[in-house]
Amino acid sequence: MATFEYNALTSAGRLMKGTIEAGTQQEASQTLEQMQLSVNSIDAARPQKLKTAIGRNEFLLFNQQLAAITKAGIPLERGLRELAADVSSKSMRRLIDDIAGELEAGVSIDEAFEKRQKRFPPLYGRILKAGVETGRLSEMLASLNRHLDLANQTRRIIFEAMGYPAIVLALVCIVMTGIFMFIIPQFGEILGEMTGTADLPGLTRLFLNMAENVIPFWITVGCFIAAIVFFLSMSSSSSTGRRLKETVFMKIPVIGRVYHSSVLSRMAEAMAMMISAGADMPTCLRLAAGSTGSEKLMLEGDALAGQIEQGANILEAGQFCRMIPRLFIYSIQLGTQRNELQDNLYSLGQMYAEQAKCGQARLQAILLPTMIIALGGVVATCVISMFLPMIKIVTVMST
Q: What is the spatial distance between Cα 223 and Cα 219, in angstroms, rounded to a whole number?
């Protein structure tokens, strides 16, 4: 498939430029004509540089503005055009204009964003599709904004808590590397002459061995960090990889709990909005799970919806669920029986949002002291390992 740049007019006479993939130039022209576009020119596209994802803050601002224009009742295509005019970044302005052009040409919103999945967060197109299909796009975007704010607060807490210890740790690593390379080897020779290498404490011998392998040690650490970065980047390219990364992330104490509560809050709020829009339960489960961006929730939501479509009770169908708590499913069942489903879902959303905030406060309270204590323990162990032989010598001499 080749990429072609085109210049065409819509049925309303509006000039539109963009790119399209096709086998030949003639096929590209025919596809554009099927989209009710009057083609002025079409040429092979020039090779473009690899596009990178937009920044987190830039995306948050874009999503907030998009929520505002949809809440005001402005048509999405027109709103995107107006939004592009106010964006200072040329690349972002061109990106929004291209999306608006495709929407005007009849391309669905999820397809338009799916083509640019490397620029936007995963599943963002599905979130917008869920909002459009249920007529609750502004509420869905507002819910996403709350989730993004919560995620940014969690990142800020982690960064602030780890920032100072990380700087100290970096300085300690530099100092300790110098000590291990230049001081401990000489110190080890003195200790060996005084007590004999075989008579040195095990901890001291361990640090002397580390002093002989400082460079291989840091090479190993560098390879380990590179492997982690490579794993994270590769796992984001497939749904299976994202589920695996999500599973590992959720096993991290406190942080995993905050993430789990956050996505459950979004799912509950999304389901409440869809119920109020008249969607049935299977549709609510699928679209709400997709709007969270959680691969594990999407998998369970789709399986749960399939069981309900086959006539199963939601409590029975939810027996296999691990990501969706039993309380969540029971509240849905109870709300359905009492005709209070929407209120129950909103209450669930608020409850899980409060749990996430409490987790953030707990994270902020324990992370910094934990980092400082761990750092102090490493430094203290190094010092003790060098003084143990001296303590042994003094003890022998005193007896």
A: 6
